[in-house]
Amino acid sequence: MDLEADIIEFRVPTENNKTLFIWEIQPSHSEAFIYESLCSVYSSFGALYLVKVCPNASVAAPGFYALVKFYSSAQASKAQRSTDKQCLFQEVPLKVRLSTKQNPKFLSESQSLSNAKCQDLANHYLGYNGWSTRIITVKDISQCADAGWSLDAGSQGELLKYGCIVELILPRHGVTCRGVGVAEEVVDKEKGPEEKLWKRRTLMKWAKDKAVVAAFEKVLLIVLGNGKVAVECRTDQEEILPDENVEGILQVNDISWKEFAAAEAEEEDLPWNCTWDGSH
Known about the structure:
Layout: E1 6-9, E2 19-25, H1 31-43, E3 48-55, E4 64-70, H2 73-83, E5 95-98, H3 105-108, H4 115-126, E6 132-140, E7 157-170, E8 175-188, H5 193-216, E9 219-223, E10 229-233, H6 258-264, H7 266-269
Antiparallel strand pairs: 1-9, 2-4, 2-5, 3-4, 6-7, 7-8, 9-10
Subcellular location: Cytoplasm; Nucleus, Nucleolus
Domain RRM: 18-101
GO molecular function: DNA binding; RNA binding
């Protein structure tokens, strides 16, 4: 039995050996049908970060090409070997290759997943009942958040800043870890109390979301060839996350709430890597 282990992180997969490029997709089906078919086929090999389908360029023959990103390089490799030159959902065999083009430096650096992507990945490998989160504290830290901020004396803006500490619990593996999230925004005082109330609720939610992401980023999933999953939690010995008096802890990792909306659409904005390995 193959017990080779593959380590999966709760980070955006940017490695080329986790990316499949698929072409020779015929125009006999709709783009939506092709997308659903690819999701069905490739999700059977492992968790997917991204599936994207695009029509061929106008100078090429009618049809589509697709990009599939896995979190696991081993699963991507197995999927490539198993589906290359197979018809799958059409009458003409597909061509499937692992990407080999080098990513730009800014793409090769590790990026955080969105909260939704973290939950999808956890559900895939740990099960819906295999993990939970608990809010330790959510606090308004606007008054102790002067570092890095200097509003003009005549400014009509008011800085709102919330911090959150969340505990991530994986009961079947006996693992717990905590994450810190901070969200901030300047509110126009002239817009009235309703605007401020809405912003407070929004900032509290996104501070929690970022804390959940930070906790997941400490988790390593060790997936064996037989499908079993082990879990390790990376800890920083110098990190102290108390239940109370969190002001000093929560003055780090500042982020505007607007960045969260962009994070949810991160997979739509990443440049494509459309070079493949022709040696297979």
